[in-house]
Amino acid sequence: MSKTIVSLMNVEKWYGDNHVVKNMNVNIAEGEFLTLLGPSGCGKTTTLRMISGFELPTMGMIKVQGESVEKKEPYQRDVNTVFQNYALFPNMNVFDNVAYGLKVKKVPKDEIKERVLHMLKLVQLEGFEKRRITQMSGGQKQRVAIARALINRPKVLLLDEPLGALDLKLRKQMQIELKRLQKKLGITFVYVTHDQEEALTMSDRIAIINQGVLEQIDTPINIYQHPKTKFVAGFIGESNILDAIVLEDHDHKAVIGMEVGRGTVEDPDDSLAVNDPVSVSVRPENMLFSETPIEGFNLKGVVKEHIYVGNIIKMMITLNDGTEIKVNRFRSEDLADIGKMVYLYWELDKGVVIKEKHLVNTDAVRDIEGGVADDEDE
């Protein structure tokens, strides 16, 4: 396993009475592409700026290559930062922008030329040496900014929403190019974005931050398939989230009761107990429906709408209490007609149980008969 190159230990950040980062603990591996993901104002950019040295932690410790860096200036840390606005020098051409850091360090001219040309080749800007920054597109400027940051051979590259100013098509292209470049160079990337798809596409691991709290850090596939909190389930992709209480638990399965029906989930470790408050998260592609009752479920609703979104069709189903459920299908023949009442269910391993406290009307839950849907169409 790769060694840790950046560590955040019990890091806190306050701006006056505003608690921006709360007890952040993260270890970033050498050569890893880690994305800090969360909504605007969640503390992800502040966390990045504390690693870079542009902000100081109120409490806690930050280490780069095992050495505490809280008292070091940004230029003394073995990290470089790429900003959303690129921060290029408009009065310089591409070569001089990329070479700037080497000239400050008084690197010999021949070495500067060799390294600049090599770096421009890596970011696919060969032949652009004399091009002025004002004559370049957003994608080209972004490549120049990355080349300028990488030419100093940092151990860690910090990227703060570097694709945010690009149009969608170019943004997707640059995601692939950035990931390719990171793997080729083997440099640790710490990347900030609020774009879930971007994080899933590029990252080795994703750290999801909400209101300054690290909610979950894991691989993209584990984040998507096994969210640990309701926030993660709802923030990454789309999910149907239903609050419930445990009614029965035996044989590694649990019957859960909701105000709109009952269902069954896996409990492989027998960690659930009767009356435990839980939520179940089911991705739209994993939500199934039937025109007849399914054993272990009596969750039903009415099909209200079909929404065509490229290669998938979203079927919107409204439950008795008004809760809207999304069901994704790839073919129109797999849909139920609008106005049809259907029974909803999921394969047991596709209903992700999240243990979080919430309020459920337990009387309403227990009024629903049985764990098997035995009622007929009304």
Automatic annotation (TrEMBL):
Residues 6-236 form the ABC transporter domain. Pfam families: ABC_tran, TOBE_2. Its EC number is 7.6.2.11. SMART domains: AAA (SM00382). PROSITE patterns: ABC_TRANSPORTER_1, ABC_TRANSPORTER_2. It comes from the Bacteria. InterPro entries: AAA+_ATPase, ABC_SmlMolc_Importer, ABC_transporter-like_ATP-bd, ABC_transporter-like_CS, Mo/tungstate-bd_C_term_dom, P-loop_NTPase, PotA-like, PotA_ATP-bd. Keywords: ATP-binding, Cell membrane, Membrane, Nucleotide-binding, Translocase, Transport. It catalyses: ATP + H2O + polyamine-[polyamine-binding protein]Side 1 = ADP + phosphate + polyamineSide 2 + [polyamine-binding protein]Side 1. Gene3D superfamilies: 2.40.50.100, P-loop containing nucleotide triphosphate hydrolases (3.40.50.300). NCBIfam families: potA (TIGR01187). Part of the ABC transporter complex PotABCD involved in spermidine/putrescine import. Responsible for energy coupling to the transport system. Belongs to the ABC transporter superfamily. Spermidine/putrescine importer (TC 3.A.1.11.1) family. The complex is composed of two ATP-binding proteins (PotA), two transmembrane proteins (PotB and PotC) and a solute-binding protein (PotD). This is Spermidine/putrescine import ATP-binding protein PotA. It comes from Jutongia hominis. The gene is potA.
